[in-house]
Automatic annotation (TrEMBL):
Protein name: Uncharacterized protein
Organism: Ladona fulva (Scarce chaser dragonfly)
Cited InterPro entries: RNF180
Listed GO MF terms: ubiquitin conjugating enzyme binding; ubiquitin protein ligase activity
Cellular component GO terms, alphabetical: endoplasmic reticulum membrane
GO biological process assignments: norepinephrine metabolic process; positive regulation of proteasomal ubiquitin-dependent protein catabolic process; protein polyubiquitination; serotonin metabolic process
Length: 141
């Protein structure tokens, strides 16, 4: 059973959508989860600053923004605080650094959204491991 992982705006903490309802993708288009998120996505092994979404399975608020822009290029802003959380580009069709795949057209900026993957008693935020608050309180006692 898949656990819903909220994807929040980092500025106002509004839930933008849930993963896996709208799965986050790597630069190669594979679904990101707690086990795969730390793997190097390309042969060059560079850490990518973006999450990607499948253009056929995006939240309705993103679909509205894309349709308003005529399926070309644009920026994605949080519907509540209007902070920029990503972009979309259906025109360029860029390739990943290893040149094996075309980059998915809808991008979310990792530094602008919070994504919490759960595994056991630990939470993983984007690419940073965060200790459970219970473990912190026990250690300080």
């Amino acid at each position: 059973m898949a656990v819903n992982v909220p994807v929040n705006c980092k500025k106002c903490r509004k839930i933008l959508f849930s993963h896996p309802d709208h799965p986050l993708l790597s630069i190669h288009g594979s679904i990101v989860n707690s086990e795969s998120k730390n793997k190097k996505p390309c042969l060059e092994g560079q850490q990518q600053p973006l999450w990607y979404l499948d253009s056929e399975n995006v939240p309705s608020w993103i679909t509205s923004v894309i349709e308003e822009a005529g399926w070309t290029k644009g920026k994605l802003h949080c519907p509540v605080c209007h902070c920029r959380v990503g972009t979309f580009d259906f025109v360029s069709g860029g390739h990943c650094p290893c040149q094996l795949c075309v980059i998915p057209p809808v991008h979310l900026i990792k530094s602008k959204v919070d994504v919490f993957f759960h595994r056991g008693e630990l939470q993983f935020e984007a690419n940073v491991q965060v200790e459970d608050t219970l473990n912190l309180s026990k250690a300080s006692s």
